[in-house]
Amino acid sequence: MITGYDHVQVTIPRDGEDVARTFYGELLAMAEIPKPPALAARGGCWFQSGSAVIHLGVEEPFAPARKAHPAFLVEDLDALQTQLADAGHECTRADGEIPGVVRFHTFDPFGNRIEFQQA
Q1: What domains sit in the chain, N to C, each tagged with a CATH number?
Q2: pTM
Q3: For the chain, what is the mean pLDDT?
Q4: What per-residue confidence (pLDDT) applies to 95?
Q5: Closest to 20 in 3D by CA, of 115, 118, 92, 112
Q6: For 55, phi and psi rounded to 5 degrees?
Q7: How would you classify the pairing of strands 92-93 and 71-73?
Q8: Count of CB atoms within 10 A of residue 13's CB?
Q9: Cα(11)–Cα(94) distance, rounded to whole angstroms?
């Protein structure tokens, strides 16, 4: 029986770690967590905020996930949307599609789709 999930992984291009740290670490205020030494040599980086964990893995050739996406739960959706928009990230609201849930989509600097939602 499945009892939860450990993490979600999306891909980034080789040498994209510094850009990822700016977006996920600084803009989204997620804490970078160390990768085990055996995996660190592969590149990429991992981030966590609360119970949400995202692994960014290097993939070559790189192709962003334009449809598949992680969906993060947030406390203040409007404030986050403003913060992302002020940083130059286009946000598309999708309210009303799921009853009782307000949400929006954006893309990380690599073109991976990300959803943020608030119940």
Answers
A1: 8-118 (3.10.180.10)
A2: 0.94
A3: 95
A4: 84
A5: 112
A6: -105, 130
A7: unpaired
A8: 18
A9: 24
